[in-house]
């Protein structure tokens, strides 16, 4: 390759320069990595300290005695929130992924007149500050008897998840060559036939991206959870309640934070590649 | 290839989503807009009386009511927070992306570390950083690990404020800023010999200077008494926490962009004698400009509507880091002042729309051109 050829012909001074710049690059990377991980170190370390040990002078030191009391207390306090969140996240994610897939299929392969205007209008829904719809939303939810219920919150997350799931699938299906579908329609397949036989079987990566994205978003969401479903607290609300009360010790708070973060962190570590794709899809063109 | 019946089926499959979003987004925004022009409160709703129409009274109060200092604090906080937050995320994101672009060993490990906070909830971030920012412990005590005295900055409860100004002077300040920008552009146009643009610019400069120097802007002070605002240093704590969480996002965007710059292009620049830094300055960075714009817009709309992070860190009592989203929540769901809450929400919507609508229009116009 040209790169190695160029490297061989460089004079020694440029070589030492290059060595120094490599050292600098790695030093900076390690510095920032430590900086980014500092809060994690603090969380884990504090959570394993006993209540007596959580004080200022030993703040940054490792625990003297290894205690899991904080984790036990945190789990007791957070358990209802964790299970509520799972009951919310799973149906909401699945429904919005299915709807997004159908919408994306229509918008990429069955363009109807006006689709180019309708789609941006749909997308606007994912950028609005939800405060702007919150008052009518609460009224509407109580008028259909879904206020403060789990199904109500599922509905809210499905609706406001539609723009992003539709967007991701639309861009994903845009890459599927039209010839593939034309071949299918010659065989007599209609809207559902083409979807079932041709589009759906190649949709797996799209579904992975959308499901990870929605899972993370809904799990982490706070505003709807605290307004539309106060009586069935989600994990974020439970964590905030726990942290907002003055009597809860820091070691418990840190253990609770970690517990609340575990599901999304697992997803991120295992499927980070797809997570990033969802992230970049959020910037509209991706 | 598609027959008419299938086209109808296709449209009927997407119709429910369109209707739902029509109601839940646009319908609800219209209702919020209506509510914002009434004096609707909990008592009025319970007694089932119709709310009184008060026109733009709520908006007037927010921007110039002597008792509504909180909203004005929020707006000032939002502006400073947004500016600083975007700067930090862009700077750090770009730096990390360029570092990772140097054909690094263990690149994916570093990438994972820089991006993992994105997978967390703002609530988790808030709880953790609240502990780290505790003035009498936390990162202030980090220097003691190597034997130094603890730092003294009080982070999110710091009372310090810089760049102070009087709210009554705001029209003048804005006009002067607009004036300097217009003057800069006019000069630039003049140097580039684009005479028509320069003439328009010159006219704008003249109008603005007339407004400023004749005292028109100074007379626009709707507040009866002076009211000092400024950049609360407590916001730095929020910027650090939010930057920790979101810098990875800009890094990922820039990294995707950097990977799109072909090696041939860079090699061509090197052959032309460009240094490694020169390659970035003259070849790579110009190609990343559109990504910077997208990042500014995405980060900007996140920071304009930020709620959970400041809710957890400030709890609504700490006005030094208060934001409109928080104010709206407390006004509506604690104070039961629906009219006022709706007005705050509409201002937030307007701020976000100013950023997002041109972006969406532009994205889809260029897409329509391509296809």
SSE arrangement:
The complex is a heterodimer of chains A (286) and B (371).
Chain A: H1 2-9, H2 12-47, H3 69-109, H4 115-124, H5 131-143, H6 150-174, H7 178-186, H8 191-199, H9 204-220, H10 223-228, H11 235-244, H12 250-281
Helix pairs in contact in A: 2-12, 3-6, 3-9, 3-11, 3-12, 6-9, 7-8, 9-12, 11-12
Chain B: H1 4-35, H2 42-46, H3 57-64, H4 69-100, H5 107-115, H6 122-132, E1 161-166, H7 170-191, H8 195-213, E2 228-232, H9 235-260, H10 263-271, H11 276-304, H12 308-314, H13 324-333, H14 338-370
Antiparallel strand pairs in B: 1-2
What does this structure look like?
The complex is a heterodimer of chains A (286) and B (371). Chain A has helices at residues 2-9, 12-47, 69-109, 115-124, 131-143, 150-174, 178-186, 191-199, 204-220, 223-228, 235-244, 250-281. Chain A is flat. Chain A is mainly α. The longest helix of chain A is centred in the first third of the chain and has 41 residues, at 69-109. Chain A folds into two domains: 2-47; 69-281, MetI-like fold (Orthogonal Bundle), CATH 1.10.3720.10. Chain B has a domain at 68-160 and 233-370: MetI-like (MetI-like fold, Orthogonal Bundle). In chain B, helix 1 (4-35) packs antiparallel against helix 14, helix 4 runs antiparallel to helix 11 (276-304) and helix 6 packs parallel to helix 12 (308-314). The relative contact order of chain B is 0.14. Classes of the chains: A mainly alpha (286), B mainly alpha (371).
């Amino acid at each position: 390759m040209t790169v190695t050829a160029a490297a061989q012909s460089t004079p020694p001074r440029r070589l030492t320069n290059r060595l120094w710049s490599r050292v600098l690059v790695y030093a900076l990377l390690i510095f920032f990595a430590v900086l980014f991980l500092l809060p994690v170190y603090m969380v884990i370390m504090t959570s394993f300290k006993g209540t007596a040990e959580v004080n200022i002078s030993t703040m940054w030191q490792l625990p003297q005695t290894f205690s899991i009391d904080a984790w036990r207390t945190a789990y007791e306090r957070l358990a209802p929130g964790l299970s509520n969140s799972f009951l919310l996240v799973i149906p909401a994610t699945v429904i919005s992924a299915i709807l997004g897939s159908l919408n994306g299929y229509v918008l990429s392969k069955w363009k109807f007149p006006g689709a180019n205007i309708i789609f941006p209008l749909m997308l606007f829904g994912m950028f609005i500050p939800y405060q702007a719809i919150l008052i009518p939303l609460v009224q509407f939810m109580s008028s259909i008897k879904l206020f403060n219920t789990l199904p109500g919150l599922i509905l809210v997350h499905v609706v406001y998840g539609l723009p992003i799931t539709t967007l991701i699938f639309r861009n994903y299906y845009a890459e599927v060559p039209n010839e593939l579908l034309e071949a299918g329609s010659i065989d007599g397949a209609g809207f559902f036939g083409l979807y079932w036989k041709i589009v759906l079987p190649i949709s797996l990566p799209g579904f992975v991206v959308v499901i990870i994205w929605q899972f993370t978003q809904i799990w982490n969401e706070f505003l709807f959870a605290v307004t539309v479903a106060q009586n069935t607290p989600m994990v974020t609300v439970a964590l905030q309640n726990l942290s907002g009360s003055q009597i809860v010790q820091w070691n418990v708070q840190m253990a609770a934070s970690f517990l609340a973060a575990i599901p999304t962190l697992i997803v991120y570590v295992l499927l980070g590649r797809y997570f990033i794709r969802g992230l970049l899809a959020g910037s509209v063109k991706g | 290839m598609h027959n008419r019946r299938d086209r109808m089926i296709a449209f009927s499959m997407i119709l429910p989503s369109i209707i739902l979003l029509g109601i839940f987004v646009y319908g609800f925004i219209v209702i919020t807009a209506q509510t914002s022009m009434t004096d609707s409160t909990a008592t009025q709703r319970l007694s089932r009386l119709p709310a009184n129409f008060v026109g733009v009274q709520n908006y007037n109060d927010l921007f110039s009511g002597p008792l509504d200092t909180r909203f004005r604090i929020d707006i000032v906080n939002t502006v400073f927070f947004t500016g600083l937050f975007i700067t930090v995320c862009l700077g750090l994101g770009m730096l990390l992306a360029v570092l990772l672009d140097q054909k690094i060993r263990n690149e994916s490990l570093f990438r994972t570390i820089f991006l993992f906070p994105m997978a967390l909830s703002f609530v988790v971030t808030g709880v953790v950083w609240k502990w780290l920012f505790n003035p009498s412990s936390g990162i202030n005590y980090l220097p003691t690990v190597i034997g130094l005295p603890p730092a003294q900055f009080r982070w999110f409860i710091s009372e310090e404020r810089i760049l102070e100004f009087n709210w009554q002077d705001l029209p003048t300040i804005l006009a002067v800023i607009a004036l300097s920008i217009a003057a800069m552009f006019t000069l630039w146009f003049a140097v580039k010999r684009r005479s028509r643009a320069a003439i328009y610019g010159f006219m704008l400069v003249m109008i603005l200077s007339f407004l400023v120097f004749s005292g028109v802007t100074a007379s626009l002070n709707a507040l009866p008494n002076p009211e000092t605002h400024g950049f609360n240093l407590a916001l730095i704590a929020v910027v650090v926490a939010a930057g920790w969480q979101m810098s990875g996002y800009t890094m990922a965007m820039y990294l995707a962009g950097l990977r799109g710059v072909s090696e041939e292009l860079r090699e061509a620049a090197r052959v032309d004698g460009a240094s490694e830094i020169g390659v970035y300055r003259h070849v790579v960075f110009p190609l990343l400009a559109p990504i910077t714009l997208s990042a500014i817009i995405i980060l900007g709309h996140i920071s304009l509507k930020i709620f959970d992070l400041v809710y957890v860190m400030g709890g609504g009592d700490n006005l030094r880091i208060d934001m409109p989203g928080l104010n709206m929540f407390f006004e509506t769901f604690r104070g039961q002042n629906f009219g006022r809450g709706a007005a705050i929400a509409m201002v937030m919507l307007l701020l976000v729309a100013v950023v997002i609508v041109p972006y969406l229009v532009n994205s889809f116009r260029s897409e329509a051109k391509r296809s």
